[in-house]
Amino acid sequence: MIHSIAAELGPWAWWVLGIVLLILEVLLPGVFLVWIGIAAIVTGALSLLLWEQAFWTWQVQWLVFAVLSLVAALVGRRIVSARGETSDQPHLNQRGQSLVGRTATLEQPISEGRGRIRLDDTMWSVQGPDLPVGTRVRVTASNGRDLTVEAVEGA
Q1: How many CA atoms lie within 13 A of 138 on its CB side?
Q2: Higher pLDDT, 99 or 155
Q3: Is the model's pTM score more than 0.70?
Q4: Where are the transmembrane segments (predicted)?
Q5: 75 and 120: one domain?
Q6: What is the span of the domain harbouring residue 15?
């Protein structure tokens, strides 16, 4: 069925594929299908020019499409990463990093370098100098699941 549709459309099949991919990009945004859609449209433009040529077989067309897709994806990745937009919430998906600078009271003493604090509704494992329960501490760093703390001066 797909083969018969592609045969009837001729070089326009690539344009249809490109437009379908661009529509899918709008429906399922991810800034990836747009580059493959552009590659399909460029392959369609080449097909319009080269359709009657003996070397322009379906195998060559798919090879050109694959190469153009790869090149477009690499160029697109460079364009997107070069924008350098800074986020107003740089630690949105890095919860531990977003806690740096906050203060809390030790729920469990820091003994042999390890203890626990409560921040908001979560208990966090902390590392730092040995301190008794109830000491006010400030989060100075995060290494994933553990926070590094230091005693707050004057507390």
Answers
A1: 7
A2: 99
A3: no
A4: 12-42, 54-75
A5: no
A6: 2-82
